[in-house]
Write a structure and sequence with these properties.
With 478 residues, this protein is mainly beta. It contains four helices and 36 strands. Strands 1, 4, 7, 10, 11, 13, 17 and 18 form an eight-stranded mixed β-sheet that branches.
Length: 478
């Protein structure tokens, strides 16, 4: 269970200034760490900064009630104190503006966001953390990966990508009040919708002392707690949304509803998510936009499986790289093995992509599912619009809606919403991974919309699929 701690977050946003003053002179002002945490109102907080050719820093604007106690140019620290009370229009959030001076009189501006916020710690380690509440600081242990069973020599964490600019802000790593290293990030409020977050996904990477990525964590930002909407299927508790999705479209024909139900795509056995299409109806094979910490669009990588790149170690160090299926190894993304323990039904593996308390299901979850008669009888033109089917459990008669968001195919990892029938390609097909393996392949729930007569609509609750395919996941409770 999450423990909510009232904390004060000093969130720092600095523009790095590196400007030549002369042929031999440059100016640098940089804050490596973007947040300061103090336990209560009225308590001091400190952040460090790096400077070169900056002789002094002077506050020019301070939020009401906050004080700047010390700016130590020798040690490179800025210390502030939050308001002790809020009786005289003191503010809980605001910007501190400072001006840095060079020996030649040039200036550099610094803006620091000050806020009082709650800290929500993720006490249980996982490869995915779910953030549902705005204006909160979330914290996790950056020194372990997986379920806490992977020790990490993390020296720095950074944003690798996010689906919208400023989705995950003020990423930081420092010692907490107990002397343990703590990673944190801040989720702000949707400016257009008070009390709600901007839904999306992000990936935070852990780096070692030589600058190499050694692990990464998926941050799933959503307004709908997936635990609260979970449903029962075949005696298991299943999320009613895809991993990384904002909601379940439940048969809506609205494009926005359909798109927000797709979620992330995963190659079998890998923990890291990959985004889906740029638009719900796949007008092209373009990937959804992702952005770096500077707000610039960046691409995913597409690489061949080789003796170097087709390994678990390389995939872990390159979480933005989709690895194409290697023909001589059954189109696994691994080059020369089929590791059946990357995802496991016996216990949650260290590469499982689901949040704490959840795991990728085995194929028994989808047993007894078939297309609901009401959907199978829809006019083809109407069925096509909803991008998915209501699937019914033949034993309980209960229905569940699954979107048909296609896959990233095993040959080149490009997005593909059509089936493999060259004569009668269909406008959409649905795929959902399980942990169950089948020789070189792994099992998945598969269904599709077929032919204009609907006589070919098909479903296979346990279809063998090449492991280099990247497909959605529905997590089940452990």
């Amino acid at each position: 269970m999450r423990r909510v701690i009232c904390s004060i977050v000093l969130v720092v946003s600095l523009c790095v200034a590196l400007v030549a003053c002369s042929k031999d002179e440059s100016n640098l002002l940089e804050v490596p760490s973007e947040s300061i945490i103090v336990p209560n109102a009225g308590v001091q907080g400190t952040t460090t900064f790096d400077s070169r050719n900056i002789t002094s820093l002077t506050p020019t604007s301070i939020p009401n009630g906050w004080t700047v106690d010390n700016i130590d140019m020798y040690k490179g620290t800025i210390t502030v104190t939050a308001p002790a009370s809020f009786d005289n229009e003191e503010v809980r959030r605001g910007f501190l503006h400072l001006k840095g001076y060079t020996p030649t009189g040039k200036t550099r501006g610094v803006s620091i966001f000050l806020a009082i916020a709650e800290t929500i710690p993720f006490n249980d380690a996982a490869n995915c953390y779910v953030a549902t509440t705005p204006q909160k600081r979330y914290a996790f242990n950056p020194m372990v990966g997986g379920n806490g069973d992977v020790e990490l020599a993390t020296t720095e964490i950074k944003l690798l990508w996010q689906t919208s600019a400023d989705l995950v802000e003020y990423i930081d790593m420092r010692e907490n009040e107990n002397g343990a290293m703590e990673a944190s990030f801040f989720i702000d409020e949707d400016e257009q919708n008070e009390g709600r977050v901007v839904a999306g996904n992000a990936l935070i990477g852990a780096f070692n002392s030589t600058g190499e990525i050694i692990w990464s964590w998926h941050i799933w930002v959503t307004n709908n707690d997936p635990s609260e909407s979970a449903v029962e299927l075949n005696d298991q508790i299943m999320m009613n949304v895809n991993l990384g999705a904002e909601d379940n479209s439940n048969g809506s024909t609205n494009g926005d509803d359909i798109y927000c139900s797709y979620g992330m795509y995963y190659q079998w056995g890998r923990k890291d998510p990959f985004v889906g299409p740029l638009a719900y109806n796949f007008p092209s094979n373009d990937d959804d936009n992702i952005y770096n910490s500077d707000g610039y669009r960046i691409p995913l990588e597409y690489v061949d499986s080789t003796t170097e790149q087709g390994t678990v170690e390389w995939a872990t160090a390159h979480p933005m790289a989709l690895i194409k299926g290697y023909k001589d190894n059954g189109y696994d993304w691994l080059y020369n093995e089929h590791n059946t323990e990357l995802w496991s039904a016996s216990q949650k593996s260290k590469y499982d992509p689901c949040p704490a308390g959840w795991r990728v299901p085995d194929s028994s979850l989808f047993a007894n599912l078939t297309i609901a008669a009401s959907d199978d009888d829809l006019a083809w033109s109407e069925a096509q619009k909803q991008y998915g089917f209501n699937l019914v459990n033949t034993k309980t008669e209960r229905e569940y809606f699954f979107t048909a968001q296609g896959r990233r195919n095993y040959l080149d990892c490009r997005l593909d919403i059509f089936n493999d029938d060259e004569t009668l390609p269909v406008p959409w097909s649905g795929y959902y991974w399980t942990v169950t393996t089948d020789g070189t392949d792994a099992k998945a729930l598969y269904f599709d919309l077929n032919t204009e007569t609907r006589t070919g609509n098909s479903i296979d609750p346990s279809r063998s699929m090449q492991r280099a395919n990247a497909m959605p996941v529905r997590c089940v409770r452990e």
